[in-house]
Write a structure and sequence with these properties.
The structure holds two protein chains of two kinds.
Chain A (H helix, E strand, L loop, with lengths): L1 H13 L9 E4 L8 H8 L5 E3 L7 H4 L1 H10 L4 E8 L8 H11 L14 H15 L3 H15 L13 H5 L3 E3 L2 E2 L9 E8 L13 E9 L15 H12 L8 E4 L5 H9 L8 H4 L18 H4 L7 H13 L12 E8 L4 E8 L5
Parallel strand pairs in A: 1-2, 1-3, 8-9
Antiparallel strand pairs in A: 3-6, 4-5, 7-10, 9-10
Chain B lengths: L7 H10 L5 E4 L5 E2 L14 E4 L4 E10 L9 E7 L5 E7 L11 E4 L14 E6 L4
Parallel strand pairs in B: 6-8
Antiparallel strand pairs in B: 1-2, 1-3, 4-5, 4-7, 5-6, 7-8
The chains are: A alpha/beta, B mainly beta.
Chain lengths: 362, 132
């Protein structure tokens, strides 16, 4: 909560507002089911728009669309979207969390098999993609290496030492075919941003990013209920977000994809229409999504190398906004005017897409 | 007063405890349903009945979870497609000593003979290795 409040305070100041101006809130927590209430209490605000939608890691991207409607209808004027977690330093261990979850959020047709949650589910999806489309472990490793190369250009990233494909391939296997280097970090972290109506940004200290399109989709919760392990609900959320923005994948200057595991960006590039189904592995090969490649993906280093405090969604948006504002120094994509953000939650369960742009993209 | 009856979830695990693996079939649209539920996942009908599937299946995907030998060693987790049209999570045993692979044909190990003694898991054994 304390690091959340710090991030919230910085975001409100960045928007040229004070906490008293905040009359809408969107937040979520992995552990607290009534999380919006203690956050409102801690920040001492009295919002008229409250959204505690919890869809796992994609939550903070999923918070965009309802906030747009609330702002547009005049229900509120300034929505604070915020998250904070001390997952790395927390007192409660993973084993305890698994035990609690068995009682509080049972999945009786999966949990008895002792899957590593959520890792084994992603391993199953990866294995199927490799079987069906010939995707290789080297291609998966390329995702992790590209993320690290971006992280090395980001002073805020947690992991900044050089990483090679062999490092990933030879890393400790956790749940075949995923090694520890195919998995996101476990870190502490907090993030926040403020949303307002376009007609209210007049005297904001920084150029705003505009939400051009946004959509969220959920087709299932459990990996065993997913109809096709190689096709995610990003197909639905992406289609609707692109339609709202009136844009195509080729219009995107920079892309932030939720990379909880190395298979994720491959699946999402396919499902969002950057390449054909099954071609994600070859699409990302030869440094295509790394610095200097044809499509800049996860320019902050992603969940794989930058930050991943339980849920990563909010950091996708923060990096996209920084790119659109031109604040990314060494990793800045020159002339970036349109950014795609894609959040994922659960075990490939929730998918949330947003397209953000500068004023020039309106 | 409301009559106390057990729902599909409890009924499924009660049968499994007695050694019987059952899935649901919809009387309305004839599709099979797993996991057990109140409403058909295909048509929304509440007319679901229990049936015993053939027990055959095919590995749709599989992963090996690496675990220290002191804690019991590695174990696999698979998704099995049944010819009835449902998919479920299970463990797979391969007596040939080879690693079970996607595409392998499998058959349910009778629940009473399964290695797990917890009565809440299903085990399949490989009956036909995938070619290549």
């Amino acid at each position: 909560m304390e690091i959340l409040a710090k991030a919230a305070s910085l975001a409100v100041a960045d928007a040229g507002l004070s906490m008293r101006d905040i009359d809408g809130i969107a937040t979520a927590s992995v552990s607290a089911t009534m999380w919006a209430m203690p956050v409102i209490e801690y920040l001492s605000i009295r919002p008229s728009f409250i959204n505690g939608t919890m869809l796992g890691g994609s939550s903070f991207v999923a918070h965009l669309e309802p906030a747009m409607h609330a702002l547009d209808s005049g229900q509120c004027n300034a929505v604070l979207v915020c998250y904070g977690s001390t997952q790395r330093t927390a007192q409660v261990g993973r084993r305890q969390v698994t035990e609690y979850r068995k009682l509080l959020d049972p999945q009786p047709y999966e949990m008895p098999y002792q899957p590593l949650s959520p890792l084994s589910s992603y391993a199953l999806a990866t294995a199927r993609h490799m079987y069906q489309y010939g995707t290789t472990r080297e291609q998966l490793a390329e995702v992790a290496v590209a993320a690290r190369q971006w992280a090395m250009r980001n002073p805020e990233a947690q992991q900044r030492e050089p990483l090679t494909i062999d490092d990933v391939l030879n890393a400790r296997m956790i749940s075949d075919p995923l090694t520890v280097r195919d998995c996101c970090l476990v870190t502490d972290g907090a993030g926040a941003f403020v949303m307002t109506r376009a007609d209210r940004v007049g005297d904001a200290p920084h150029a705003p990013a505009y939400v051009l399109g946004s959509s969220t989709a959920v087709w299932n919760r459990q990996i065993s209920s997913m109809h096709d392990l190689t096709v995610t609900a990003a197909q639905q959320s992406g289609k609707l977000a692109f339609a709202m923005a009136g844009m195509q994948p080729r219009d995107m200057d920079v892309v932030q994809l939720y990379d909880a595991f190395t298979i994720n960006p491959i699946l999402f590039l396919e499902d969002l229409g950057f390449c054909e189904k099954g071609e994600g592995g070859s699409f990302i090969s030869d440094g295509a999504i790394a610095p200097g490649g044809s499509l800049p993906v996860n320019t902050n280093g992603g969940g794989l190398s930058c930050v991943h405090p339980g849920m990563y969604g909010i950091f996708l948006i923060i990096e996209a906004v920084r790119q659109l504002r031109g604040q990314c120094d060494e990793r800045q994509i020159e002339g970036a005017e349109v950014a795609l953000v894609h959040g994922n939650g659960g075990t490939l369960s929730s998918q949330s897409t947003a397209i953000l742009g500068t004023k020039a993209a309106l | 007063m409301m009559q106390k009856t057990s729902g599909p979830e409890a009924q499924y695990f009660e049968a499994l405890k007695l050694g019987v693996f059952r899935i649901q079939k919809c009387n309305s649209c004839s599709n099979h349903v797993f996991f057990p539920r109140i409403l058909c996942s295909h048509c929304g009908s509440g007319a679901l009945q229990w049936v015993e599937p053939s027990g055959r299946g095919e590995i749709y995907s599989i992963t090996v979870v690496r675990r220290d030998s002191e804690q019991g060693g590695d174990y696999n987790i698979a998704l099995i497609d049944l010819p009835e049209g449902v998919r479920l999570m299970a463990h797979v045993v391969d007596d040939s000593g080879l690693r079970p692979m996607i595409g392998d044909a499998v058959a349910l190990i009778p629940v009473s003979e399964a290695p797990g003694k917890t009565h809440d898991t299903l085990y399949f054994k490989v009956t036909d290795k995938v070619q290549g």
